[in-house]
Amino acid sequence: MSRPITSGTHHIGLTVSKLEESAEFFTSLLGWKEVRRNEEYPAIFVSDGKIMVTLWAIKEQPVCEFNKNRNVGLHHVAFQVASEGDLASIYKTLSNNDVKIEFAPELVGQGPAKHMICYEPSGIRVEFLWPGK
Question: VOC domain: from which residue to which, for each copy (predicted)?
């Protein structure tokens, strides 16, 4: 095959234990829009205008929390930001709202790209990356 058969990401589906809180993380703290809800599943769909994240409520509590070093599954999800200032702004907003931060904005390798990682309310690792361009 000479070219990929896929053409980018349509959406990311995340199973969460705190549906409303996880949705609020995206909408209230990051400025995303709620696109729709599925009360039967239940699920909440949020978008930043370029990508959609589907938040699916778990049906029962997990046996144990996900461990990125011991479990097969999503290591983290990463979202790009437009500027170093935007990265700093996200860090400040999350810090001021008691979001668990794994690490503050720092260089990726030798830079100039920078990134940070936090945990959304259900415990999923979320990275924000400024590519340094």
Answer: 8-131
